[in-house]
Amino acid sequence: AAVADEEINRTAAAAAPVEQPAQPAAAAGGKRKAPASKSAPQRAKVEFDSPLAELEAIRPDLAEVWSGADDVLHFMGREIDDDTCLILARLLASNATITLAFLDDNLLGNEAGIALAEALKTNRTLKYLRLDQNQLGDESGKALAEALKTNQTLETLRLDNNKLGSEAGKALADALKTNATLRELGLDDNQLGEEGGFALAAALKTNKALQKLRLSHNNLGDEAGKALA
């Protein structure tokens, strides 16, 4: 009888339903809440003591070329983009040693050009700035024109092959009416068009400082060409 009772208990235990783990309560509308996702940890923002220290951290190859004391910044063809140029602009804004800066043949766009223009408003030592063969565009040209209205040290500004357009050409022409220090302005291959050509011609009637103006490959047209002549 004991053996029979044990067999009956074993059979009853096998037939009993298995207890399931409790499910989370349903949200309003009958839908269960999805488990809260874990947000990615925030990366701490690095603070640098100076633009040079930031340059050393972000682009050590550039910091090796310029020690911080040289009067020439030679960064031609270094694949410098807008982000890196923002650092260079902050450096130029307060630097008192650099007189020549070569930034041609890089990846500079409008953001970089505008930042450099802001730097020129406070810089008091830079005499030569070469930005040929970048992608500055119209807004950069207009920003640089505004800087030329107050900057009193820059003597050479090279902007060849930057797709500045006619509006930038007119803005630069307007700046030449009051700027008294710029000796050379390079604007080759910038799509200035006839309007830009006429504006520059008008500016040259009053500007007495500019000695060299480069305007090749700009679709100026015959009439603007005659006005410039």
Structural notes for this entry:
This protein is an alpha/beta fold and 229 residues long. The chain contains nine helices and six strands; from the N terminus they run αααβαβαβαβαβαβα. The protein has helices at 2-15, 51-58, 60-65, 82-94, 110-120, 137-148, 165-176, 193-204, 222-228; strands at 72-74, 100-102, 128-130, 156-158, 184-186, 212-214. A six-stranded parallel beta sheet has the order 1-2-3-4-5-6, with no helix packed on it. β1 (72-74), α4 (82-94) and β2 form a beta-alpha-beta unit. α7 (165-176) runs parallel beside α8. The longest helix has 14 residues, at 2-15. The N and C termini lie far apart (127 Å). Mean pLDDT is 87; it is low at 1-5, 11-16 and 25-29.
Summarize the topology.
Blueprint: H1 2-15, H2 51-58, H3 60-65, E1 72-74, H4 82-94, E2 100-102, H5 110-120, E3 128-130, H6 137-148, E4 156-158, H7 165-176, E5 184-186, H8 193-204, E6 212-214, H9 222-228
Parallel strand pairs: 1-2, 2-3, 3-4, 4-5, 5-6
